[in-house]
Design brief:
The complex is a heterodimer of chains A (about 180) and B (about 500).
Chain A lengths: L1 H14 L3 H28 L1 H4 L7 E6 L10 E11 L2 E11 L9 E2 L11 E3 L4 E3 L6 E2 L5 E3 L8 E7 L2 E5 L15
Antiparallel strand pairs in A: 1-10, 2-3, 3-4, 4-9, 5-6, 6-7, 7-8, 9-10
Chain B lengths: L1 H4 L8 H14 L1 H9 L2 E3 L7 H20 L10 H10 L4 H29 L7 H23 L4 H14 L6 H9 L6 H33 L16 E3 L3 H23 L24 H8 L5 H18 L1 H4 L11 H27 L1 H19 L5 E3 L12 H12 L2 H5 L15 H4 L2 H9 L3 H5 L9 H12 L3
Antiparallel strand pairs in B: 1-2
Helix pairs in contact in B: 4-6, 4-11, 5-6, 6-7, 6-11, 7-8, 7-10, 8-9, 12-15, 17-22, 20-22
Classes of the chains: A alpha+beta (about 180), B mainly alpha (about 500).
Amino acid sequence: MNAVSGNEESAKIDSQGGRRSFLTAMFAVAAAVVGGLLGIPLFRFATFPLRKAEAAGDWSDVGPVSDFSSLTVPVARTITLERRDAWQTTSSQTAVYVLPAKDGVLKILSPVCPHLGCSVQWQDAQNKFVCPCHSGSFGLDGERLGGPPPRSMDVLESKVENGNLKVRYQYFRQLVPTQEPMA
Amino acid sequence: MSTETTPDPKARPALVERLDSWLDARTGIDSILHESLDEPIHGGASWAYVFGSGLLFLFMSQVITGVFLAMYYVPSADHAHTVVSYMVKVVSAGSFIRSIHAYGSSGIIILLCLHVGQTVLYGSYKGRRELLWLSGCILMALMLGMAFTGYLLPWDEKAYFATAVGTNLIAEVPWLGPLLQKLVRGGGQMGTLTISRFFVLHVFVLPGMLIAFIAGHVFFFRKAGAAGPIKEDPIAPKLPSVPFYPRQVLMDAAFAAVLIGILAVIAKMVPMDLGPAANPADTHFLPRPEWYYRPAFQWLKYLSGHWSLVGGVVLPGILALIFAAAPFLDRKLERRPWKRPISVGAFFLFLLVYTGLGFASYHDDYSDPSVAAQMHKQDVDARAFMGSPFVPENTSGSLPTSLVSADPMMVKGHALFQSQSCNSCHGEGGVGTAAAKALIGVGATYSDAQLQALLQAPNDKMTAGGMQPVILKPEDLKALSIYLRQLQ
């Protein structure tokens, strides 16, 4: 019984020329309103991480430049890293080496050995950097002297702002001959 | 099936036709569509019938926006407020989606009133529709539960205090009250377990029950058939019928578009606010529930002593029972509202009193200067919080807090583990990396003396893996060994 009335109705619609296309248009309008008002914001909401600019390694304070003006040997300084993960930040501490100034420019080295990532230590007695893991050694300027490391110690980007030395701490790929930052 | 043997003469594109017959042969989609779209509506389509499908539409909108909100939400007392504020202030369209979801719950309450009002006015619960009505009553209770549990989740001041008051009411229940309250809160006080419980109810339990009861509600509705206009016989319909599709479907679709349009305009113009994080120590905060719970809130103000049990628990319970029993109590098939003054009158009297209580609550707040000032301050605070930039949550540093109170030898051992770069290969806390094995559990394998010997003179396998002898003073070696042996 229902089937008959249903078929009759649809037959009627067909005979009434533009009625069917009008209906289709009305449904399309309703679908477009709902889809547009809900679908687009939902899509933007879910894909937000794609548009968010990655914080490109923030700058950490090392200390006042005056502290480093009379250095004769590299010194280790502890810096605080702020890592932002969406709605939380994690602060952790790590060490960097500040080298004696050359032509008034301070150079900062990462203590991470480019071989397997152990912390390289400055040895006053030997006047060089020595890695405690596999005995890689580096000179006063961080240049490779001997042992398994494939390259010299990694230089970190640094700048002076209002008399303060700042460093952009980064990790670099190990076991490769060139200094490549890890994404 | 016939569609496969006799090609349809209608001028549908051949591809659509072939796809349809392919799908139909495998799913029976044509008869399902026929069954759902050609339902007869006696007396014709009407705008009076759009509220039910409007509710279904808003429920689906809540499910979809809710699932998206869950992509960023964390149900924990120490993160909930931060993540909601991150969503609202940082994530694209976050404030809009949250507003659609929050205002959507108000929309559902309004539509529930319209849907129930239309059913009562039209006497559409009559004629073998008891189960249809009862499933609807349960759906209404579940929806009110969704509104109550969802309100807490942002964990701002108003969410916290409104829920504290709401859950205090549970304690009024005779005998079991205090026990029930503790169960709902997950403890004597509101806390992180309260959020977990409300989250599970709001996201898993209640939606699951809603879907099951919506399925039952639609099934009972289809079994009984649409009741039609007030002059129609609810059991043996006599008026000529039109199919559900297209007229009623079109009205329902237009109504859905209007609903989402209204929600979008409100969400854009007046985004749902988020107040400062809940501070249980704040004694000045005046808790107020959402507008649809305001009348109940006002009602409780008039009750004191043992009347609070009668008025707060017994009376609402009896009213709810009478309401649920309506199709059993009002059994005549008469549907014209003017011929059944008691049932229609009682419903609208209740609605009037409920609305009146709501207005009285707002009136009380505005007419008491000190309350009005505090309410204004709370609004200002919430607006100020909404206007301030997002502040990320600071997690504690990498040093395990358990070490702070640990044995000094172990702390020393931990420091040596790091300064000797053991962590470079064996990982932080000895969890192991690609370069070297985990050290967790070495305490079970080696004694203190064995471990110290092994550290000073690694075996062949260790040396092959890149392990160097550890050269340390005896007491340092002992500290390192103590640290290593407790790793788990």
